[in-house]
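Thread: "does anyone have the structure for this chain?"

Original post by V.I.:
We have the sequence but no experimental structure in hand. Need at least a predicted one for the grant figures.
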Amino acid sequence: WVAFKAFSLAKSLSTGNSKSFFVQ
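Reply from O.Q.:
Generated one for you, tokens below.
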């Protein structure tokens, strides 16, 4: 799940939406 979290964080940063990372 670590890789998934890292991917989600990178995706969130790229979209400028950090909330989506914390939700997941």
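V.I.: this helps a lot. The mean pLDDT is 65.
O.Q.: and Residues 2-15 form the longest helix (14 residues).
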